[in-house]
Amino acid sequence: MKRNLLLSPGPTQVPPQICEVLSRPIIHHRTPQFQNHLKVATEGLKYVFQTKNDVYILASSGTGAMEASVCNLVSPGDKVITVEGGKFGERWTEICQAYGTQTKVIEVKWGKAVEAKQIKELLHAEKNIKAVFVTLVETSTGVTTDIESIGKIVKDTNAVLVVDAISGLGATDLQTDNWSVDVAIAGSQKGLMLPPGLAFISVSAKAFKLMEQAKSPRYYFDLRKAKEALAEVDTPFTPAIGLIIALNESLRLIKEAGLQNLFIHYARLAQGTRAAMKALGLSLLSDEPCISNVVTAVNVPNKIDGGKLVKTMRDTYGVTIVAGQGHLKSKIFRIAHMGCLDEYDIITGIVCLEKVLHKMGYSFTLGAGVAAAQKIFSA
Ligand code: PMP
């Protein structure tokens, strides 16, 4: 039987302990048993979000929590800032526009990160900005944003800082409270090593004040309802019971490993991956200081069909990496190193990449990538 190794930036590999919990019979949600699961989950999420704020659990993919942040924070006509340096920054703009905001877009070259001073300048140039929407790890380019510096700027204004941490929460540092992040968003299928289906959103007191005044229509994602329900250890609608119980296993595993240790682990996997790509003569889309430890974006070499490379690795050898998105679709491929992965999984991915590149006629020394990664992993 073919393996199914996910080196994709979501969904990521689900560890067997979590699969076991997912296989258990369902329980009813209006019970003390489920209430206990919900309580443990919402407390455990605070550890991963590094916050004392409430974290709400929504039954949706990550985009649902993005939309929840917009419809709860803004009124039609409000001015907001979005940063577009990739597919998911564009999504912020699209959602904000769908809710009728005046959206001031900072465009960033794909592969680069926004600089905090760009946000500072726009906040000064435009009056009454309600919210600044940014992306922790832009999955389409493998770029990490310096949220800490942006937080220092936004906190002294009336605007709230909203961070899409869907890619990366639990895998790369996001200090929600220390960095003055008002709203942070994550999804279950990435650093939390669960199947897709849950979204998480933490909300500061400053953000909640705005949510009480905002005039956008909202129902399912009305966080005022979520707050009221959470005070009673409840949810406004039927929660994704099985996923929430499995989330507690994920949170247990993360706590056991230690968040800081996980950041070091994923950084090491990222280093090994980058070293391997460079040893194969491949160049990276982004570079220091904004390169992410969550996903590595690699430029497809001349005369190689990037789509075919990804497809062959997946369909012939059972190793899933992903192609580019938007205008980078056939120009890059992306290897993720988050979720339930270790160095041997990365080595397997590199072996497979070498094999397929070799078969496609790309010229390099077979084994060079593996050797470079081994050097990092054996140091
Ligand atoms: N933002 C980022 C940074 C992402 O990586 C993704 C998923 N790839 C999303 C938003 C959208 O999340 P979902 O597909 O769970 O709605």
Protein model, in words:
Helix content is 43%, strand content 16%. It has 379 residues and is an alpha/beta fold. It has two domains: 127 residues, Alpha-Beta Complex (Aspartate Aminotransferase, domain 1); 241 residues, Aspartate Aminotransferase, domain 2, CATH 3.40.640.10. It has a seven-stranded mixed beta sheet, sandwiched between helices. A three-stranded antiparallel beta sheet has the order 11-14-13, with helices on one face. It has a two-stranded parallel ribbon with strand order 1-12. Helix 1 packs antiparallel against helix 9 and helix 10 runs parallel beside helix 12. The protein is globular, with a radius of gyration of 21 Å. The structure holds 4'-deoxy-4'-aminopyridoxal-5'-phosphate. The site of 4'-deoxy-4'-aminopyridoxal-5'-phosphate has 13 residues, from helix 3.
Topology:
Layout: E1 5-6, H1 16-22, H2 32-49, E2 54-59, H3 62-73, E3 79-84, H4 87-98, E4 102-107, H5 116-125, E5 129-135, E6 137-138, E7 143-144, H6 147-154, E8 160-164, E9 183-187, E10 198-203, H7 205-213, H8 223-231, H9 241-257, H10 259-279, E11 295-299, H11 306-317, E12 319-320, E13 322-323, E14 332-336, H12 343-359, H13 368-377
Parallel strand pairs: 1-12, 3-4, 3-5, 5-8, 8-9
Antiparallel strand pairs: 2-10, 6-7, 9-10, 11-14, 13-14
The structure holds 4'-deoxy-4'-aminopyridoxal-5'-phosphate.
